[in-house]
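A protein record in our archive is deliberately plain, so that people and models can read it alike. The record that follows is passed on verbatim for readers who wish to inspect the format.
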Amino acid sequence: MAPTSIGPILLLLLALLGPLPAFTQRETRHQKFQRQHVDFPKTSPDLDPRRYCNLMMQRRKMAGDTCKPSNTFVHGNPEDVDAVCTHGGVYSSENYYDSNISFEITSCRISGGSQRPPCNYRGRLSTQNIRVACINNMPVHFKGTV
């Protein structure tokens, strides 16, 4: 019996399977919170709130196939925002905590009501305390302002 080579068999198997998917790490809830809500220092502080919202909603992947209806960006140090869940905030209810300090924020809302691209946002800049949902002492959801 003649020896066989396994090389051609492996090549055929790989060709039939196609390219192997890249192993990517999934975003944690805290990482998603930071991507969607924390912008410090503020990106392009010279932009008016409307242009800022249109830029950031696209850049942070909330205005692609569909337009996220609203979003709030907190322009505070990420450590200060995270601290709302521990020593920098007070318990409100369920797993919600209110910040002890005010943060500069930009609130973005979709204009025209359609959630289909192109996405167009209006923005409003203010300074307010924030309410976040916390899991394992880390913010995972922006609830609103207080």
